[in-house]
Specification:
By secondary structure, this protein is an alpha/beta fold. It has a single domain, classed as SGNH hydrolase (Rossmann fold). β4, α4 and β5 form a beta-alpha-beta unit. α4 packs parallel to α6.
Length: about 210
């Protein structure tokens, strides 16, 4: 769904509850929707509430490993546990993205984390089959020489392949951030430019507004 104004965007979200869990690349989506947010905190939790249109949007950072300088332990949550706490339903949207902070660690750790999330998604869809689950994939990033060893696009690509394999055949939707950043003329960046973020939001809304 192509949105030219925030009015169209919020009309699409009317009556919806959107829960976002993930890293700072997903926080960009929340920041795009919340034009008034100016908090210096990186991890959340954040919330948008529009009483007139009955819209609730939340964001929370995923559990460790994390490379943020400071994260209070009281604010750390695992995505699987958060999903298990949701009722779900036809007006509920769950969005998650988890990849960037796992690059320096063995791939086995990432696989186990995704398997845990997958089991939580299965439980959610069993109790509320009409819930929409959307996954934001990894994207290409600009690299300094010091970052290239542990955070190269090769590491991100391996995790992207694993994520697609773990959720293959499931009733989930993907926003293919890898292809969207690869195809765009803007320089690669761990946090893609606003035009790319808008394109991603448009795809997200196309899933939401056809429910």
């Amino acid at each position: 769904m192509k949105t030219d104004t925030f009015f169209e965007l919020y009309q699409c979200l009317k009556g919806k509850v959107v829960h976002m869990y993930g890293d700072s690349t997903l926080r960009q989506w929340f920041e795009y929707l919340d034009i008034n947010r100016n908090s210096p905190k990186q991890t959340g939790p954040y919330m948008i509430w529009d009483n007139a249109k009955n819209i609730l949007v939340t964001y929370r950072v995923h559990g460790p490993p994390l490379s943020f300088i400071y994260v209070p332990t009281s604010e750390l949550r695992y995505i699987a546990n958060e999903i298990d706490g949701l009722v779900g339903g036809t007006n509920t949207v769950v969005v998650f993205s988890i990849w960037a902070h796992f690059s320096p660690f063995p791939i086995e750790l990432y696989i186990r984390r995704l398997q845990s999330i997958r089991r939580a998604v299965i439980r959610l869809l069993n109790r509320a089959p009409d819930t929409l689950v959307v996954i934001r994939t990894a994207n290409l990033r600009g690299l300094t020489p010091s970052e290239s060893l542990n955070y190269s696009d090769w590491h991100a690509l391996q995790r992207d392949k694993v994520l697609r394999a773990v959720f293959k055949g499931f009733n989930v939707r993907l926003v293919d951030a890898w292809e969207m950043t690869l195809a765009h003329h803007l320089p690669h960046n761990i946090h893609p430019g606003r035009p790319i973020v808008k394109n991603m939001i448009d795809i997200l809304l196309s899933y939401i507004c056809t429910k």
